[in-house]
Design a protein that fits this description.
Length: 276
């Protein structure tokens, strides 16, 4: 019998009450892991609790939901401590939670810039730091969720792009040192354009119709569609699992085309494009 790929594992997934994080945590639970779900909003947590009770009856011992703001000092260590108290250990950590302000050089003040850094870069650092003693005991794995904006970024995603670029350097640095010193793997997924609930909402706010994703410019969707959250989740589960072997310090761009050196046609509209 083939066992689930994350059997006997305990995984923290931050920002997992919606979107990509929700899909990742769900896939981890399906693959046999105990999962600490994490988010901010009480209403989303309540909806998630109902969903989990329906989809995984009599398995409440395998999951828990914690709400906290990772920008606040001490919240990262507290999340790790709660997970250990609930499940006894941490073998996997997925740093997915993110703050995404749509601002540029002129519209970004110091407070907003620092919030992006604290949530998107500092929080993953502190979570890895807090979880390391437990990850080291189990030869655990970290997966950071970055963005294709790490390489440059869209004009109105300046602080977000900077924070994700820093996260990518953190991944490559710790992917080397933690593997050598503790046997802990650290990798990153850089999603491109993903059809999440929030992306659907943003496009409706921009005045697009309900079927906007079915008629995208080929420059942005050569395959005729964009990625779904479950496709990101499948990649993350592979990175967390033993199937990845000694894979560490690597960054995978989950996009349909090369990010560097690709120029759109002169008359191609970019109004619809927003990366994760």
């Amino acid at each position: 019998m083939i066992l689930p790929r994350l059997s006997n594992q305990t995984v923290i997934v931050t920002g997992s009450t919606t979107g990509i994080g929700k899909a990742i945590a769900h896939h981890c639970l399906t693959e046999g892991a105990n999962v600490m779900w994490h988010g901010l909003e009480t209403d989303l947590a309540a909806e998630l609790r109902l969903t989990l009770n329906r989809e995984f009856p009599a398995q409440e011992h395998r999951w828990e939901i914690t709400l906290s703001d990772l920008e606040h000092e001490g919240s990262c260590a507290d999340l790790v401590a709660r997970t250990v108290a609930r499940f006894g250990t941490v073998t996997g950590l997925v740093n997915n939670a993110a703050y995404i302000p749509f601002t540029n050089l002129e519209t970004t003040d110091a407070a907003l810039f620092m919030r992006a850094i604290r949530v998107n870069t500092l929080a993953p650092f502190l979570l890895i730091q807090a979880a390391l003693p437990h990850l080291a005991k189990t030869s655990g794995s970290v997966v950071n969720i970055g963005s294709v904006n790490s390489y440059c970024g869209e004009p109105n995603l300046l602080p977000y792009s900077i924070s994700k670029g820093a996260l990518m350097t953190l991944t490559r640095n710790l992917g080397d040192t933690l593997m050598q010193e503790h046997g802990v793997r650290v990798n990153q997924v850089n999603p491109g354009w993903i059809l999440t609930e929030n992306e659907q909402r943003r496009k409706r706010e921009h005045g697009l119709g309900p079927d906007w994703e079915k008629d995208l410019p080929r420059i942005f969707a050569p395959a005729g569609r964009i990625f779904r959250p479950h496709e990101v989740a499948a990649t993350v589960v592979f990175m967390l699992s033993a199937d990845a072997g000694p894979f560490s310090g690597q960054v995978w761009d989950l996009e349909q085309y090369p990010m560097i050196g690709r120029n759109p046609p002169k008359n191609e509209s970019t109004a619809v494009r927003v990366n994760s």
